[in-house]
Amino acid sequence: MKVLVIGATGTIGAAVAAALGAAGHEVVAASRGGELKADLADPGTLDGVFDAVGALDAVVCCAASGPLVELGSVTDEEFEAGARAKLFGQAALARRAVARLRDGGSVTLTGGTFVSPLAQGSLGALVNAGLEGFVRNAAAELPRGLRINVVAPGWIRETLEGLGMDGSAGTPAADVARAYVEVVEGTAQGLTIRP
Asked: Where are the beta strands (DSSP E) in 63-162?
């Protein structure tokens, strides 16, 4: 399959691109700073990516991240900006992908999972719940046998270690990447997958 990976230079994105390549798929990598530029905060960049790559069998978005914010002190503008890329940017990506995917193709988005309430995590919880609802409902609307799902990992081991924290509480990026590959290659539809 020909698979577009948005956010292919990040911790999860690089692992997903490698795992898809190892499984024999043709991977087209895009990111904010890469040769093929895609920025979820600027949906117009997505049109350029789709125009450049042509027909696809799958689109995987690993570029989704959101800031931790202090609910009582964040401004409306900061709160909206925090939701723009991860929630609305991924929805914009999915809407564009519908017109560009071959019959039976798939879109896999990235959410997140909080095992318990997380300090400064209210924005993330809102965005993740919104993504899950979007995917669940969009799945019923897709034409031509297209599929859409969201992978919602918790903490990633390498991310925790990069923050100077104990990585043992996180899932290795390679394990999370396998979940994305299974979704791309499988038949799941409208689901939230928590690796």
From this structure: 101-110, 147-151
